[in-house]
Structures are given as structure tokens and as C-alpha cells.
Design a protein that fits this description.
disordered C terminus; three-stranded mixed beta sheet; 20% helix; two-stranded antiparallel ribbon; 124 residues; alpha+beta; Rossmann fold
């Protein structure tokens, strides 16, 4: 599943994610927060310059395999799965243009009732 959650007011288009939901995305995306580990890998592989942080800080043994530009990005926590560690305040302070998630498209992920409502944005 690819879920993008825009912050800000300038939207350029509406896309349909892999769960069948319509999502508005901004015209210009410079800052991307990955919702979980799988999304971190996806964003790192496709657009490492846009990644604003890691769900978990890379371990010393992992650092040599990462591009120098992303090795020292901050730990921002995770929004998805068990053990969500990102706080709403930290997410808002990071000012992502979008939040990307990658993973299951189970019916609970597609259903609005499968979302946990939080102030400012839904997290599914």
C-alpha cells in the first residue's frame, strides 16, 4: 500500500492509492516521512534526498551501506505497526510534505473504520 498524507494547502492532484482511496498530493514534494520500516526502504531507494528521517536510527554496522547524505538523519519514529514510536508533535515539527506508507492492503487498511483518527491527519 502506498498512502500519502499531505500537509499544507497547495494540492496539485488527486491520486488513488493501492488500497483504492483517493488522496490529494501537493504539487511539489521536498520532504517525505516514511510511516514504517518498509516505507523507509522504499523512499530511500526512490528519493533519498527527500527522506527527512529514519523510523529507527541506523545501527553502526548498517551505516557503511547507506549513502553519506542519509546516514545521520534523525530518528523520527514509526507511525505504523506494533510499537508506534512517533508522536504527533514530532511529526508536525518535522513538517513533511507527505507521509508514505508501504505494506498491506487488507480490508481494515482500506476501510475508513480501519483508520485511527488523530488531530490534523488520519494514520492508517
Amino acid at each position: 500500500m502506498l498512502l500519502t498524507i499531505p500537509f499544507g494547502t497547495a494540492f496539485a492532484r488527486e491520486v488513488v492509492d493501492s488500497a483504492g482511496r483517493k488522496v490529494e498530493v501537493p504539487d511539489h514534494i521536498a520532504r517525505v516521512m516514511a510511516a514504517g520500516p518498509s516505507a523507509s526502504v522504499l523512499v530511500y531507494m526512490l528519493a533519498p534526498e527527500k527522506l527527512i528521517g529514519w523510523n529507527r536510527k541506523p545501527r553502526p554496522a548498517e551505516r557503511p551501506y547507506l549513502a553519506p547524505s542519509v546516514r545521520d538523519l534523525p530518528e523520527v519514529g514509526r507511525l505504523t505497526g506494533r510499537g508506534g514510536t512517533a508522536s504527533l508533535e514530532a511529526v508536525m515539527a518535522a513538517k513533511p510534505d507527505v507521509i508514505v506508507d508501504f505494506g498491506s492492503t487488507r480490508p481494515t487498511s482500506r476501510s475508513p473504520t480501519g483508520c485511527r483518527a488523530r488531530p490534523a491527519f488520519p494514520i492508517c
